[in-house]
Every structure is written in C-alpha cells, then in structure tokens.
C-alpha cells in the first residue's frame, strides 16, 4: 500500500503538468543600426552583462555558448560604433588579463533593459490581446 500511495501523487503531478498549457512568451528585440552594422541589440547587451558577471570575454562567451572569436568581434563592433568604448580589456599575462565594463557599458545595459521594461508595461493591453489569439 505504501508503494501505491507514493505513486499516486506522482501520477497526479504528471497529469497536472499535461493539463497546464504553456503561456506564449513575449520578447522585445530592439536594435539600433548604424550604417550596415547593428550597433546595439539584444545579443550585444547579453554579452555585456556576461562580461560584467565573468570579467572576461572568453568566460562570457562560454556562458553564452558562443565562440571567443564571435564574442570578441561583437565587442569590437560595439566599441567601434560608440563615441566611447563600453569595455576595457587588459592583456593576458601573469594575472590572466580580463575585460571590464566602462561607465558607458553599464549605462547601455541599464538603458536597454529600461526600454524593454517600459515597452512591456506600455503595451501590456495589446500584448494580452495578441497572446489570446495564440493557440496553446
């Protein structure tokens, strides 16, 4: 009987998972283009956040399942698009080098995330109407 009691909650849990409908996910993906390049977008902001967390481009790239070369190119393109760089890198050596955000980099993250939050709040009614049209 003890085995039956143990298996019953598991079965109830399973049926509850099956009956729960996944909710549509809404994401804003703002990009700022400069000439032919994306000067700023969601990938570069995520990379800046990872650099802030891990202190290096290589560790940030690993955390995002991205090659070091791709991450370095994105950081380079971002910094070339800005009036002042978003990151400061130090060469390797005994201490291993690293990469930190400049005040511009911190400002970019804050402003970008603020825009996302404000857009979500401002469009909540329309988002709710749109998501009601999605089959779940």
Layout of helices and strands:
Layout (H helix, E strand, L loop, with lengths): L1 H18 L12 E3 L2 E4 L1 H13 L2 H7 L4 H14 L5 E4 L7 E4 L1 H20 L1 H9 L4
Antiparallel strand pairs: 1-2, 3-4
Helix pairs in contact: 2-3, 2-5, 3-4
CATH superfamily: Winged helix-like DNA-binding domain superfamily/Winged helix DNA-binding domain
CATH topology: Arc Repressor Mutant, subunit A
- Kindly, what is the distance between the CA atoms of the first and last residues, rounded to a whole number of angstroms? 38 Å
Order of strands, main sheet, comes to: 1-2
Low-confidence stretches: 1-8
Task: Provide the residue-averaged pLDDT.
Answer: 85
Briefly, what CATH class?
A: Mainly Alpha
How large is the share of residues in beta strands?
5-15%
Q: What overall geometry do the principal axes of the alpha carbons give?
A: elongated
Query: Which second-level CATH architecture applies?
Result: Orthogonal Bundle
User: How would you characterize the largest beta sheet?
Assistant: 2 strands, antiparallel
Total count of helical runs of at least 4 residues: 6
Radius of gyration: 22 Å
Q: How many strand units?
A: 4
Structural class of the helix and strand makeup?
mainly alpha
**What's the SSE pattern?**
HEEHHHEEHH
How many domain modules? 1
InterPro entries: LysR_HTH_N, Molybdate_resp_trans_reg, WH-like_DNA-bd_sf, WH_DNA-bd_sf
Protein name: HTH lysR-type domain-containing protein
Domain HTH lysR-type: 46-106
Region (Disordered): 1-27
């Amino acid at each position: 009987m003890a085995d039956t009691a143990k298996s019953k909650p598991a079965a109830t849990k399973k049926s509850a998972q099956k009956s729960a409908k996944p909710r549509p996910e809404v994401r804003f993906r703002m990009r700022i283009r400069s000439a032919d390049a994306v000067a700023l977008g969601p990938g570069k902001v995520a990379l800046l956040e990872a650099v802030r967390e891990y202190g290096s481009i290589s560790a940030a790239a690993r955390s995002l399942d991205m090659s070091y070369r791709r991450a370095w190119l994105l950081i380079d393109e971002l910094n070339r698009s800005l009036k002042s760089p978003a990151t400061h890198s130090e060469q390797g050596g005994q201490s291993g080098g690293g990469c930190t955000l400049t005040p511009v980099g911190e400002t970019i993250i804050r402003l970008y995330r603020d825009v996302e939050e404000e857009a979500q709040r401002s469009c909540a009614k329309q988002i709710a109407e749109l998501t009601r049209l999605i089959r779940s």
